[in-house]
Amino acid sequence: MKYIVLFALVLLTIAAIDNQTKQKSLEEQHPSLFRALKNMALLQEQSQQLDYSRLINAINDLESEILQNKEDENASFNKDFLSNNADQEFYENQITQYQVEVSQHEVDLADLTEARNTLQQLLNDGIKEQQDVTLLRNQLDQQIKTDAANTAAQLQEYDDSAAAIDEAINLLTSLKNADTLVQVKDKLKTHLSKQKVFFQPLIVALTDIAQSNFANQELISKVTNLLNQLRTSLLESRLQLVVSSQSLEALNKGLLTTYEEKLNILSTVVLPDLRENIEIKDAEIKAKNNLLNDARSNLEDAQDNLKATQDAWIVRSNLNSKLLQQYDTDLSLIQQVKQSFDRAGIKQ
């Protein structure tokens, strides 16, 4: 009967430990031990001469197995600890590397964007300069044509005036009546009215000639001399006009050539080069953006992997604690059983 009581004590001990640790019972954890104890109690009822050596050996083997499992768990835990630390260090190094890459790519991207904006501003300035120079070229070209037309008109006026003077001189050499004088007067009025320095004295002289019945040869000679002086003055003025207009035309055409050369450089060299460089910078910015996005993605993956590794270690640590607690509980229970055997006088 004492072994029945012993079995009951063992079961009560197991139940008490289960309530404290909330772990599985001995029957669930070690069914062989449970059956062995149960059979021991039953056999004791049948015989006082039962051999307990096999049961004791089984308990000792179970204890050794639990101790080995505990040792194996500690070894596995230490190995997992080193492996997890290595993994965490690996991902931390990756995070540092990708953070450096992200920062460098961001700096590079900012530099490329600034360079691209500078090129775009230069292109805008070049286009504006092209428009301004084109406007100046067109205005100057029109000015050259206008000046040429005005000069031609003035030269024609000088030529017409000189021709009128020549005709007036010819008329004066054969001046006989008022009709001839009127012709001279009309010619001079038509072409020389602007030459007031000469025109007014000529009109006065012609009037005096008319009053002398065209017989005052001295006065006629005087008028002829005035007309010759006027013709000489007109020719000198014409020559000055030709020289000044040619000089101005040469200056303007030189400036026009400068504008044309400037426009040619802008349209064939400067603007195409700027557009090409902008395209190159756009391609570099696109490539750098891709690298930046890849680095950011790699950084996120490394951070996720580190978090997962840290979380996995928390789970592994909790599992280790539970296993060690269970092993210690089982070993304590076995010690209690052994102590019960000792009190029952069963040799181990």
From TrEMBL:
Signal peptide bounds: 1-16
Coiled-coil positions: 52-122, 285-312
Entry keywords, A to Z: Coiled coil, Signal
Name the UniProt record assigns to this protein: Uncharacterized protein
Classification of source organism: Eukaryota, Sar, Alveolata, Ciliophora, Intramacronucleata
